[in-house]
Amino acid sequence: MGQYEIHAFVCTQGPWCPRDGDAEGVHKRLKKLAGEHGQKSRIRINHSGCLNQCGHGPMMAVYPENVWYAHLTPEAAEEIFHQHFMNGVPVERHVYANKPGANKVPRDEEGNLLEDICCKEEPR
Ligand code: FES
After folding, report:
1. Cα 50 to averaged position of ligand 1 atoms, centre (Å)
2. H runs (alpha helix) in 1-124
3. What are the start-end ranges of the E strands in the chain?
4. pLDDT confidence of 96, banded at 50, 70, 90?
5. How much is the pLDDT for 117?
6. What separation in angstroms does the CA of 61 have from each of 52, 82, 121?
7. Domains in the chain, please, with CATH?
8. Which of 25-29, 104-108, 120-124 has the highest mean predicted lDDT (pLDDT)?
9. For residue 11, how far is its CA from the centre of ligand 1 (angstroms)?
10. How do 43-48 and 6-11 pair as beta strands?
11. 99-8-91 Cα angle (round to 5)
12. What average pLDDT score do residues 36-40 get?
């Protein structure tokens, strides 16, 4: 077992997640909740760089379970904290699954997404 029971990486420093939503707000909300609930020795919330899933963000990867989340908001993060981090049940409507490796959604020159995407990606 690692140093933390739950180690979450929120993509706040990639090129797109911070532009596609409130990635910083997601990180802040989780960090605040971990502190308020006395969970800092059990749950670690880290900033991360690009997780290679740009266009599905804001993204978060949770280890050691290897549960990934997409299209996060601070409100969704709060739900994840209570339901998943405190009670062990992932929040399915934000769970992200895709084929292994990089899955970046193409964009035009202005950064607009070129594919219609939804919250839960099915493995291809
Ligand atoms: S910018 Fe967040 S996954 Fe690439």
Report:
1. 4
2. 17-20, 23-36, 74-80
3. 6-11, 43-48, 60-63, 67-69, 95-96
4. very high
5. 62
6. 11, 16, 15
7. 6-96 (3.40.30.10)
8. 25-29
9. 6
10. parallel
11. 65
12. 98
- By three-state DSSP, how is residue 31 classified? helix
45-75 pLDDT, tens digit per residue, is: 999 999 999 999 999 999 999 999 999 999 9
- Name the nearest CA neighbour of 72 among 16, 122, 31, 20: 20
Q: Is 60 in contact with 9 (CB distance < 8 Å)? A: yes
Count the helices and strands in the chain (H runs, E runs): 3, 5
* Atom number of ligand 1 nearest to Cα 15: 1
Give yes or no for a contact between 60 and 11, defined as CB atoms under 8 angstroms apart. yes
Pocket of ligand 1 (CB under 6 A): 11, 14-17, 50-54, 57, 59
- For ligand 1, pick from 12, 17, 46, 103 the residue to mutate: most ligand atoms within 8 Å of CB: 17
Q: In what order do the strands lie in the sheet with 67-69?
A: 43-48, 6-11, 60-63, 67-69, 95-96
